[in-house]
Batch of 2 targets.
Target 1
Amino acid sequence: MRLFYPLIFFLFACNLGFCQGNFIIKDNRASYKVKFKLINNLIVFPVEVNGVELSFLLDTGVSKPIVFNTLEGIDTLQVHDTERIFLRGLGSGKPIEAIKSRKNLFKIGEAINVNQTLYVIFDTSMDFAPRLGVPIHGIIGYDLFKDFIVEVNYSAKYIKLHDPKRYKAKSCKKCEVLDLEFYNSKPYLNAEIDVDDKKVPIKLLIDSGGSDALWLFEDKEKQITIEEGNYFEDFLGSGLSGSIYGKRSKIKKLYLKDFTFEDVNVAYPDSASIHYARKFVDRNGSISGELLKRFNMVFDYGKSKLTLKKNGKFNKPFDYNKSGISIEYGDVRLVKERQNRSGGGTKYDNPGTDLEGSTPIILVTTYKYSLKPAFTIVQLRKNSPALRAGLKINDVILSINSRESHEFTLQEMLEHFYGKDGKNIRLKIDRDGKTMNFGFKLEPIIKQKSPSN
């Protein structure tokens, strides 16, 4: 296989220092800003790989970039200098086969690396599009952070890449600066949780590729345990080595230096799913997107520092999906949409209804048929309101609270299930070609652990 770009360009780039496998910003610029989309607490932004523009997740939990070669849009991607390997990650399944490829050209706006190593995964189950509603072709982490000081602004939804040699930190009295530690090129921070009104120190992986708030690994010696009777079992996500299941609950408080969060959502993955992750014995869990998005932050891997400044999302309460429904984009469906258009006509026959010489305006009702994404129920939590109401897996949602489902994005649809306790949800669904109606109310599933309790 070969790159799209001429050999002469590659040789010239080597003379500029690219061949060391580092990113630089073209034209000797001091910084470059990249806009991103925040989808389900995950950062999605464009990355060009060997001349093909793809959508990547920014994932601090990975070392080398990974490309999923099963999705639409990368059929023309070519890689070379390859070898077959096996990758291992979260999940209780076996390692998955991948291709390791060197000397690939990566461009993130004006940031460029012409000697980037990547891994290509062909496993068809690694498809994030149904869960997120947008195609995800790959993930990138450490190799971007190691070469820049990376500013992540969750408020304005941009990443700013700074040349470390020319970066000048802004004075920030309300910021907290945390020390970073690294293991296998992944960043960790120290935090504390409240256990029986005592602060217990924990070490957390910074995992921007996870959408939850906090994961904790059960450890009786460190008093990291689940309160009996105050949790529910759930699907937590997908890792490189399969599905991850566990329990969800809340902790009373989480401390990041002087920043304090109360009633924080926490997931406890089952031991089989995190066997590989626990090879770093000091690790107690992960801090992920639902918490990270409450800050604007600056990563300085060179100095092992992370600067946090709280933003407008800081005090947002931590909610769970109270319906018990998990949905994905399924197959498309044919939708009949009504359209009103105005058309000209001749004079009305009845002169009393028209002015002499005028052209009447007639509203003509027309319809068009178009293919729209279908939202399919893929999981139902045990004893959830939706399950008790009679909904089933593979039901296709046609409308929610009298509004057609195709008018929503996937994220907008899910927001209905995070409403206040007692909120009425009315669903019209298609079940094997039959239209049916269901209703239920959202209800709390975890007892709040605020200090007043």
Target 2
Amino acid sequence: MTPRERVLAAISHEKVDRVPCDFWGTPEVITMLKKHLGVSEELELWEKLGVDKIVDLTPYHTLGVPLPPFFYRGPRHEQNQDIWGVSYIPQEYNGGVYWEINYHPLASMDTIEEVENNYTFPEVDWFDFSYFSFLFKRQVVKYRDYAIKCGYISPLYVYLNLRGMEKGLADFVANREYAHYVLKRICDFLYSFHERLFEAGRRFIDIAEVTDDFGMQTGLLISPNIFEEFFQPYYRRFIRLLKDFGIRVFHHDDGAMSLLVPRLVELGIEVLNPIQWKLPGMDPKALKNDFGKVLCFHGGVDNQETLPFGNTTDVEQEVIYLLETLASDGTGYILAPCHNIQPITPLENIVTMYKTVHYWGVL
């Protein structure tokens, strides 16, 4: 099977020749791995590791990196600002650089009137999707053996970037009319943008994300009632949009978010990531028993403890455990790290993760 065939078969709960695996890592890790394995291109790295990489071709406009001028023709922003007006600065952590938000454009606007008078939401007409279509199809040829992901719909993420974490979460309780207004403006843009994006990439997009981090280390970041009131209607509309285009629904949701899984399944998600199985309520055997007929699980390999601080034996044992639970029926699982592998991770642990799934994941 090709990597694309293997990934899509696992999502569809069809027979696979071996459990597929994906790779997420920071740029620093990618550079170190390429040097360690003697390759120069990422394609060569995936082939060397035997990774069934899901290739993300979403045209992001974040972290101050401007989109190509032939795609984005909207207003010019300050350096290191995204299309929402959120500003970022680079911060170094243990040898890796992350872009942290240092300006939330709606942080000081606490009323609908203030937002209407002082803030401009992005518009879909700022983007030229015909040029995107041309560029996208050229990239698809390069990655023809791999599943293509294109699209990232994350309303809570955008809302909290605009308002800041503390004010943003408080709005759902103490400033509800305001939260509904801003969230609707965000979601109207995200829907229109992705409708045009999917039309431009028609037939070539396998997977897209309808996603948010509703979980934290100990439980949910918001209550199920808040999810139902503020997010569920939009999620239903977004997921219907993906399925109208024949695109598989990938949902990334960090943390202990198991209380929302039944609602998300009812709404139609098909792939659940990242499965932080050491957190409360995230037992992989229980998740497989309860949702394994309708969900494909993606991720699972712990990169808070096992990958950075364990040894190769720890990594091997964890991979085998995940194969025995999340792939207990021989499909419906794509093994991957729970998030981007960090620069403090020993390279031998990364290599061991993929060697183990190739040896024990043959079906």
